[in-house]
Amino acid sequence: MDQVKKNWWKLTGIVLLLYVIVGGLLFDVPQLDNLLQSIRSIYFHVGMWFGMIFILGVGLVFSIRYLSTSDPKDDLRALSAVKTGLLFGFLGLLTGMIWAKFTWGAFWLNDPKLNGAVVGVFIYLAYMVLRSSVDDREKRAKLAAVYSIFAFVLFIVFIMILPRTATFSIHPGIESNPALVPGDLAAEMRPVFYPAMIGWFIMSYWLYRIMFRVSVLAEMTKELSENKKTEG
To answer: What is the pTM of this model?
Structure first.
């Protein structure tokens, strides 16, 4: 019983996403032009991107905190958040490409929102490259924390601001956040869409916590290995 109370939010996330999978595949959706049944992808594609933005925001908070505390665990928390964000980003790109193929006839088009999304992912891939190129732990953590702050700002610019300056985009939401503005989302889709957003937020945070624990264990193993070499 204590475990249930402790992990209620995990159970909530599981229940919500199971509901989203069933509802997303079986519940009625509007038949809109060339979208047809592919509109069901919105429960997964958009949710994954929102989960990515949320968890990268968590990484931003811990990067800022590291610069204040110099706590190595804050650095690992920021790293774990970025890894989780990239996972959701790749899944978001993959589901988006599949949806694009069925809707627009191609996996990728030269579109400001699509291009901005992939540039945003590459910005965070560069964060991982930066970390791997610096051996000194403290220096690496500080550089990564500073880069993370700028990366998040650039990420928002490329996925939300620059696309709205474009004169045309085939992707929905050039003037707003798709599905969040009144009238964007059909009434029959709301009972699945909003639980989906909450479920993906919970799942991204859960995966981030797992990533963090794995990172802590990896650091402990590395330190033990280094100590044995020193003693030997």
So the answer is: 0.88
- Structural domains in the chain, sorted by start: 10-217 (1.20.120)
What the block records as the tokens of 111 is 């579109």
pLDDT in tens, the chain (232 residues): 677 778 899 999 999 999 999 998 898 888 766 667 778 888 999 999 999 999 999 999 999 999 999 999 999 999 999 999 999 999 999 998 988 888 888 888 888 888 899 999 999 999 999 999 998 999 999 999 999 999 999 999 998 888 877 766 676 655 555 555 555 677 888 899 999 999 999 999 999 999 999 999 988 888 787 777 676 5
State the DSSP code for 171.
Answer: S
Q: What CA–CA distance (Å, rounded) separates 79 from 113?
A: 26
Q: Outline where the chain has alpha helix (H).
A: 2-6, 8-26, 42-69, 72-104, 112-132, 137-156, 162-165, 190-231
